[in-house]
Design a protein that fits this description.
With 412 residues, this protein is an alpha/beta fold. Residues 1-17 and 19-25 have low confidence and may be disordered. Strands 2-1-11-10-9-3-8-7-4-6-5 form an 11-stranded mixed sheet, sandwiched between helices. α7 (173-189) crosses α8, α8 (195-205) runs antiparallel to α9 and α12 runs parallel beside α13 (330-341). Helix content is 43%, strand content 14%. The chain has helices spanning 2-9, 19-25, 54-59, 78-91, 105-112, 142-164, 173-189, 195-205, 207-218, 255-271, 286-289, 292-308, 330-341, 356-362, 367-373, 398-403; strands spanning 38-43, 49-52, 68-71, 95-101, 116-119, 243-247, 278-282, 310-316, 345-348, 380-385, 388-394. It is built from 16 helices and 11 strands. A hairpin with a 2-residue loop joins β10 (380-385) and β11. It has a domain at 2-94 and 276-403: P-loop containing nucleotide triphosphate hydrolases (Rossmann fold, 3-Layer(aba) Sandwich), CATH 3.40.50.300. Residues 72, 74-80, 378-379, 394, 396, 401, 406-407 line the site of adenosine-5'-diphosphate. Magnesium ion (MG) binds next to α4.
């Protein structure tokens, strides 16, 4: 039924009619062709070119925010479509940031495009140091920058402690003060302070508040997690790079290590956030949905996107991924469910068996859209921008298809 329906919907490219007539016959057809923005592919109902730009759509009030949710079962083309948006967005002058990439798909793309790639994990040659402040953007106000950078670093260290020792979360004001003081000491006494210096400063501080924090952070300095975040950085994020990808495949099997790596990367990539439009891409975002600290960050990021000129792209398998946050408590589950509501562009690929009903209900799909969803081919998706829906196949050039090859080296 689904396949027949899809064939019936498809009309020859040469077919001509007024859009009003077609609108009745083909329920997806919106009266405006989408020809402005980044080229994506073609509308498989009308045959028209399809272009997309979240900032332009926002300016035209087609969407109420610039964020994008890409939802679909494994293997139907989510990552390839996000890569097409990223690559072609770079050609339009936008920057692309991937704070965590559990399959290292994006680090290979970043390398091929002359961007910056970093692969994190214990024993990996590349490292970030959570105590680094980063560098002010050219022409920036040094003092204002320093204050902000210290705030950002303080918030990161608090999240690392809370992630390592959930029983301490939310960290007491007294504990935060102790931690801030110890960070100051470590950074004052060492040219390149590391977590080892911070642990030493906390040990010297002593006291009831310092001890549990010290114990938590010590876990990063010895044992299986050491070597990832406790040494001087090998690099700092480069604000001029068109694309920065942080590969986390080496820690993909370890939820705690993965969370710590992505938290650090997100915070430090925030520091390079200069002016200009950016896509911030969370591929395999189900990992984020399961972790309260990440959830809170992504939630804030989505809410701030308009003010910051960013467009966050959340890529997930299914809406039921948000249920994973339920283990973390009801408020986390509610936040997770709310994330999709903060993405006014939804790109919906074929769903896993059993997920179509839920997707159709939660995203208020019409019957026609629901049937089309079940018949989508590879690389084809329903693009819902605000109230408009189109059925679009992402067209890839041969060079792009080779560059985006997500089948090779799934883990490194
Ligand atoms: N638009 C497309 N055109 C042609 N092939 C595609 C397209 N999108 C994806 N593919 C192919 O489908 C496979 C899975 O794509 P991928 O983007 O990794 O899916 P997902 O991220 O949804 O798991 C890859 O082999 C890719 O080459
Ligand atoms: Mg993928």
């Amino acid at each position: 039924m689904g396949g027949d329906f899809s064939r019936r919907l498809r009309i020859p490219t040469a077919h001509r009619d007024t859009t009003a007539v077609l609108g009745g016959a083909y329920p997806f057809l919106t009266d405006r062709p989408a020809l402005a923005g980044i080229f994506i592919g073609h509308d498989t109902v009308t045959g028209q070119r399809f272009c997309f730009d979240p900032w332009q759509l926002y300016q035209r009030q087609t969407v109420s925010n610039t964020n994008i949710a890409i939802i679909g079962n494994i293997g139907w083309g989510k990552t390839n479509t996000a890569m097409a948006i990223a690559l072609r967005g770079i050609a339009s002058g936008y920057h692309v940031i991937i704070p965590g990439d559990p399959k290292n798909d994006w680090t290979r793309l970043a390398e091929a495009l002359g961007g910056q790639s970093l692969r994190l994990g214990p024993g990996m040659p590349e490292r970030l140091n959570p105590l680094d402040l980063g560098a002010p953007a050219c022409g920036g106000d040094g003092r204002g920058w320093r204050h902000q950078a210290e705030q950002r670093r303080g918030a990161l260290i608090v999240s690392l402690v809370e992630t390592l020792a959930p029983s301490l979360a939310p960290l007491h004001p007294e504990s935060r003060e102790t931690l801030t003081a110890a960070v100051e000491v470590a950074c004052r006494d060492n040219a390149t302070a590391t977590l080892h210096h911070l642990v030493t400063a906390l040990a010297a501080e002593g006291g009831e508040y310092a001890a549990p924090i010290r114990a938590a952070l010590s876990e990063l300095c010895s044992g299986p997690l050491s070597g990832m975040l406790d040494r001087p950085a090998t690099t700092t994020p480069d604000p001029t790079a068109p694309i920065i990808a942080v590969g986390t495949a080496a820690v993909a099997d370890n939820d705690l290590a993965h969370t710590l790596a992505v938290l650090t990367a997100t915070s430090q990539l925030d520091a390079v956030a200069g002016p200009g439009r950016k896509f911030i891409i969370f591929d395999e975002a189900w990992r984020i949905l399961a972790t309260p600290t990440h959830l809170a960050r992504v939630n804030a990021e989505l809410r701030l996107s308009r003010a910051r000129g960013t467009s966050t792209i959340l890529i997930t398998h299914a809406l039921s991924d948000t249920d994973k946050a339920a283990n973390a408590g009801t408020s986390a589950a509610a936040t997770a469910r709310g994330l999709v509501a903060l993405c006014d562009t939804r790109i919906i690929f074929r769903q896993a068996p059993g997920e179509t009903d839920r997707t159709a209900t939660e995203l208020a799909l019409t019957n026609h859209e629901r049937e089309a969803l079940a018949a989508l081919g590879k690389g084809e998706a329903l693009w819902k921008t605000g109230t408009e829906t189109r059925r679009v196949r992402t067209d890839l050039g041969t060079v792009e298809a080779a560059l985006f090859n997500t089948d090779a080296h799934t883990s490194e």
